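User: Good morning. I'm curious how zinc ion would be positioned relative to this chain. Could you predict the structure with it bound?
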Amino acid sequence: MSLIDGDRLWTRLMALAEIGAAPAGGVNRQALSEGEILAWRRVIGWAEEAGLAPATDAAGNLFLTLAGRDRSAAPLLTGSHLDSQPTGGKFDGAVGVMAALEAAISLAARGEAPARDVVVVAWMNEEGSRFAPGMMGSEAFASVRSIDVIRDARDADGVSVGDALDRLHAAFPELPRKPLGFPASAYLELHIEQGPLLEVETKVIGVVTGIQGKKTFQVVVEGAEGHAGTLAQAERRDAIASFARMASALHAEIGAVDADIKFTIGRVTIEPNAPSVVPSRVTFSIDLRHPDNAVLDAAGARVVALCQEHAPPCSVTVKPLVDAPSNEFDAGLSQRIAQAAREQGFPAMSILSAAGHDARHLAKVCPSAMIFIPCRDGVSHVEHEWAEPAHVAAGAAVLAQVMRELAFA
Ligand SMILES: [Zn+2]
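Assistant: Good morning! Here's the predicted structure, ligand included:
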């Protein structure tokens, strides 16, 4: 017998997707929007019906607590996010919140209180589409970014996060406030893979080993404009010639670091970009990813060195933009996930997350782990994003087993 009610979970997930429903079957539910307020009401309704108590915090995270016998013990946290991309799907984020809620409701129905509180969480603004950058709720919780800095961010209409947060809180005046970043004993997050590996391998459960680290750079090569017919080759400071040497050296060396490296020059802008003018400036982007931080750092340092080495007679500036190290999830929790999948008969595999998630920040403050389920064709952040009902139920059942082991021990 399953540890959760898969039909109830699916019905509620589809009901949640009606809020912010988009024309092509997806969801547009922006952070701190009217849609998110409605989603909170619906989710809080389901939670209260099962005896879970809702609360929020200064960062607009939603917490739904199943009270344990020892209220002073650090709670088990589990969830994801309820906001979406403007043309997002029904599953990214929502499936993690709803699976956690379903698991908590099923655990509550056992009639015996857990040893410690079980807290279902919906983090504020994971997507970063209305207010950039994303993961605001989990970053505030894990003290990665201060709440004051977060409140100052504005959307395209000039509305600040602070004002939108105040509006959200005003819509729920009865909700108690938890302190920002209370201690947690562990964090579990279920999410769709957002990639094709589980589907290709015909696995149902991904035991996520960690989140791949990423660095991005903007490189500007400065040369000098000149007449293509009259300027002697020896006199030229041709920005494309320097760029070509850099790109070739970067691909040859960084691109060949090892089998796990991902090196991309994805955008190049040339000035003045005219057929008979020696180019004066090339601006290009570098996206560099690797699961091992030492390798990522070393590769990042070589990016800078190689650009400088191949710039002359032009000059170059390499500006780091994103610097997000890889994180590894807790090995003990990952083992429990793998074992729960095995015991329940779901084919599972270890998988590295290529995309970022709130769990990245939670891993800094408590043992954390993630469960992936497949999504059709590996696609996400699109309206036709899809996960099979059986896979949603499988992920929630594995989550429920690990929650039971951690909270009822
Ligand atoms: Zn997500």
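Residues 81, 92-93, 126, 191 surround zinc ion (CB under 6 Å). DSSP finds twelve helices and 16 strands in the chain.
Let me know if you'd like a different ligand tried.
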